[in-house]
Amino acid sequence: MSTKPFTDPEAAKGVAFGLTAYVMWGCFPLFFALFQGVPAFEVLIHRIIWSCLFLVGLVTVMNRWRPIRQALSEPRRLGRVLGCAVLIAINWGLYIYAVETRQVFQASLGYFLTPLVNVALGMLVLRERMAGLQSLAVLIAATAIVIQLILLGELPWISLSLALSFGTYGLLRKQVPLDGLSGLFVETLLLLPLG
Question: Staple 98 to which of 19, 107, 116, 194, CB 3.0 to 4.6 Å?
């Protein structure tokens, strides 16, 4: 890896994609607020259906059907992808519910908490270890979250549920030998019967 990330074109592209993703995620509450009065479950169903249709087009344009056919033909892998699908549906549904009920702060706190859940799961389940500065960074983030929880004054069940569902999704997804695009398509495909 380059020591000068902004002179490496691939690293710069990665940073640009990362920033774009965070800007899009930051705009999601504004988008889902447009559906005020529509039940969260109905919005979730639309998200699943339209995501699946969009991904059909993307997978077709990128010619990525082979890993999808392979995943659909292997029951063991399909079972894990189904677990991922359930977790991501819970996460999406909770997020939509949080926005619909004007609890955007809890949703934000949940996604702020998610990296700590990822670290905890990595250490407990995958037996990963942290270096000194990494431990310090986690301690600072954990302190910030504790302060936010104290200021909130109540148990943030939405925040905790979002963080745990997305963190567990990430852990399970890491164990599925399927690229991100193919995995997301199979997940949304498996969720289509909800619609």
Answer: 107
Share of the chain above pLDDT 70, in %: 97
**Listed range (96-100, 146-150, 188-192) with the worst mean pLDDT:** 146-150
Task: Identify the domain containing residue 70 by its residue range.
Answer: 40-194
Whole-angstrom distance, CA of residue 144 vs CA of residue 139: 9
Structure tokens at 158: 């939405």
5 within a domain of the structure (yes/no): no
8 in any annotated domain: no
CA distance 99 to 129: 36
- Cα 133–chain centre separation: 26
Structure token digits, residue 99: 């926005």
What pLDDT sits at residue 1?
A: 45
With beta carbons less than 8 A apart as the criterion, state whether 2 and 11 touch.
yes
Q: Distance (Å, rounded) from C-alpha 113 to C-alpha 129?
A: 19
What is the average pLDDT score of the chain? 88
- Domains identified in the chain, total number: 1
* Residue 2 predicted with pLDDT over 70: no
How far is residue 59's CA from residue 183's CA, in Å, rounded to a whole number? 11
Assess if residue 89 is contained within a domain: yes
Q: Residue 160 pLDDT more than 90? A: yes
Residue 19 belongs to some domain of the structure: no
> For 52, phi and psi rounded to 5 degrees?
-60, -45
